[in-house]
Amino acid sequence: MKIPNLASLTGVIMALSFAVQPTLALAQDDGVRLNRAIELLESGQPALGVLSADYSLGNARTLARSGLDFIIIDMEHFPFNVERLQQFLLGMTDKRQIQEKGNLQMNVTPFVRVPATGAEEVLFQAKQVLDVGVFGVMYPSISTREEAENAVGATRYPQVTGAVDFEPVGLRGRNPANATWFWGVRDYMARADVWPLDPRGDLLAIIQIETVEGVANIDEIVSVPGVGVIFIGPSDLTASMGYPSGGEVEAAIQRVLAACLAQDVPCAITTSAGSVERRLSEGFRFVTVGFDGGISEGVSEALRRGRAAAGR
Predict the structure, then answer these.
(1) What is the DSSP letter of 163?
(2) What contacts 20, CB < 8 A, 6 or more positions away?
């Protein structure tokens, strides 16, 4: 008797799982926003998360039940390993939570920061991490409108000719098999577009402002259709400004925040237990409460204060 190989068996199992999935469950999922961070932003609530360099299977389980709203896997300053990322995402899949919620929305939304900066080619890196199922990409060091348009384009598929949201032109290649499987939906192609340009979109293009040029061009950058979040990077911005000793960096931060508030684009920044409440009161809507190497006491305290400030 010929024994089928592992790939064939996997394909058969996946096909059978789709075939026997209850129609009722699929119907319930149709109206569910899979990206919980977007759901919070749409409802006017801030989203609280962490940057993390630890994308091990063990940490995936910890983060999945951490009480955070999102995580950003930092593959800019740490290894760009897509296979390891895929294992991490599978490790974050909490079957008990899915059963209890009755839908496929993850409590903690995973994003990735890619290594390529705004001046470099980002398309292949964005495509790699999106194709394994992350819900958005953070693009470091975006300094011009053109770089922001390229980042948004790298996050989305080409649209139907004549569509009202045709631009920025989608650049992502079409091979969503792994992402479709991870999201657990049949309509991935319809959902996998950038919010808020596509109101149903479940992907976030997170644009980092980290340079003097980026601050100077913020009005043009924030007006690019498809920009989901503007994320200020205080450390690199300080370096770009020549390490000033006065209040110049904070003035630049406030300049970016004001542009975001004027255009109703969520603004993001890093915080700690000592600053999270102040930043939320200023109007920041997407904040990290620490850097994850495990959920430390400081991260937990910043998360607690952030939730209290947000009334959650």
Answers:
(1) -
(2) none
Cα angle vertex 109, ends 193, 156, to 5°?
15
* Region of poorest pLDDT, from 22-26, 175-179, 282-286, 304-308: 22-26
pLDDT tens-digit series, residues 294-308: 567 778 888 888 888
Domain assignment present for 4: no
On whether residue 11 sits in a domain, the answer given is no
Range of the domain at 160: 21-309
- Is there a domain that residue 114 lies in? yes
Quote the CA–CA distance of 51 and 27 in Å, as a whole number.
34
Per the DSSP assignment, residues forming a β-bridge with 281 are none
pLDDT at 233: 96
- What are the strands, taking DSSP E only, across 62-220? 70-74, 109-113, 136-139, 204-209
Which of 181, 205, 92, 172 minimizes the C-alpha distance to 132? 181
Closest Cα to residue 254, out of 307, 306, 311, 209?
A: 209
Rounded distance between C-alpha atoms, residue 15 and residue 6, angstroms: 14
pLDDT digits (tens, 9 = 90+) for 93-118: 999 999 999 999 999 999 999 999 88
Q: Which residues contact 142 (CB under 8 A, 6 or more apart)?
A: 118, 148, 151, 207, 208, 209, 214, 221
Task: Write the CATH number for 60.
Answer: 3.20.20.60
Does residue 5 lie in a domain region?
no
**Structural domains of the chain, count:** 1
Supply the pTM of this predicted model. Answer: 0.87
